[in-house]
């Protein structure tokens, strides 16, 4: 039995529109991060992930910042070089390191989080408070559902993209 293709045009599909929203919102955020925080968007995301979940490994940073491990490693080193993050040998893993914010990193993280909250308010500003709550609950359900699908399909770690293109695939 041949299945009839879905007549929905590409630009009306959920994945296309979600990707478009991400691209449009990231473009604005990328333009504002250097002035507000003095960092690129990806370094800022790593800084806020370290601030929220510290002390953490590079592998954990990759998971929380939605990057692959090599991207997280480069970002962590850039933040260390800037004096925003300290890197210490891990007590649990002799080969690993633990990342924590420095005093300067805490100040930069506070500025980054202020920008995160401003951008989130702008992005969902066209929605009523009730719609914002509903959207948040729906996003939580979609994330949980898709993590389950990824694990069911054999993904080793459903929270870490395999490569840079994985985060932008339709």
From TrEMBL:
Residue ranges of domain HTH marR-type in the record: 11-144
Xref: PROSITE patterns: HTH_MARR_1, HTH_MARR_2
Cited Gene3D superfamilies: Winged helix-like DNA-binding domain superfamily/Winged helix DNA-binding domain (1.10.10.10)
GO molecular function: DNA binding; DNA-binding transcription factor activity
The keyword Transcription belongs to this UniProt entry's keyword annotation: yes
Domain of life: Bacteria
InterPro entries hit by this protein: HTH_MarR-typ, MarR/SlyA-like, Tscrpt_reg_MarR-type_CS, WH-like_DNA-bd_sf, WH_DNA-bd_sf
Tagged with keyword Ribonucleoprotein: no
GO BP of this protein: response to stress
Keywords, comma-separated and alphabetical: DNA-binding, Transcription, Transcription regulation
Database matches in PANTHER family: HTH-TYPE TRANSCRIPTIONAL REPRESSOR YETL, TRANSCRIPTIONAL REGULATOR, MARR FAMILY
UniProt protein name: MarR family transcriptional regulator
Biological source species: Hylemonella gracilis ATCC 19624
Lineage: Bacteria, Pseudomonadati, Pseudomonadota, Betaproteobacteria, Burkholderiales
